[in-house]
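User: For my dataset I need records formatted as: sequence, then structure tokens, nothing else. Please produce one.
Assistant:
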Amino acid sequence: SDSGIGHALSKYLDALGFTVFAGVLNEKGSGAEELRRTCSKCLSVLQLDITDPQQIKDAYSKVVEKVQNRGLWAVVNNAGIMGFPADGELIPMTDYKQCMAVNFFGAVEVTKAFLPLLRKSKGRLVNISSMAAIMRQELSKWGVKVSTIQPGGFQTNITGTSEMRAKLEKSLLDHLPCDVHNDYGEDYITMQRIFLESVEKYSSPDISPVLLDIRHAVSAKRPFAFYTPGKLVYLGLCFFSFSPTGIFDYFSKKFLISGEALPRALSMPD
């Protein structure tokens, strides 16, 4: 909840009167301080690096101590990172591992830690990710309702600042083997950064559709299994899910900026 959707959601649920536990990567950071300053006493800021098992245990203990017999109604898994958008061959293995540690394994470990409380309350598990389908079936027997939020393009901090993107690009270039660097070329890699910047530019600054869907998933008597906040997100998912591969590839190349660029070795004349 340091920034982005998690930060806005914490404020939104607090304003609605929920008791909120906001997990942050840095409890002394500006995002955490803003939550303490602007929200009510019903919001607690928790130090929670979801890649650190001990911090997850500590957060669980603090939640249990605070809620006592009242129980915990919902867990919203929102933490996520996005590395530099480049071809798979260019991305260092450390970036793959970090992405999985945060976007998948961290969410799984947090969920496993808090599931006893959710089973007891027959509450809600909301994942802004793709891990929910199996869990929804497994937890239905316990009365826990699981929802997946698949948002479209919204302006959050997931793509980082221009300085952060430049740092990611430099790090990627510095770690490339010489032959791979020569085959792809710096111009091609720079195009990937431009694509990332365009994603931010054309994304919506209004994240209220995401907040409203999460509110429904948390508080509705019969929450949906799948939410798609954002313009044309549902239609887009249906189109790309059911389109033949050739049509999918055509539209991907036509409408994605990165699809227009070619690596240096492929753009050179024979």
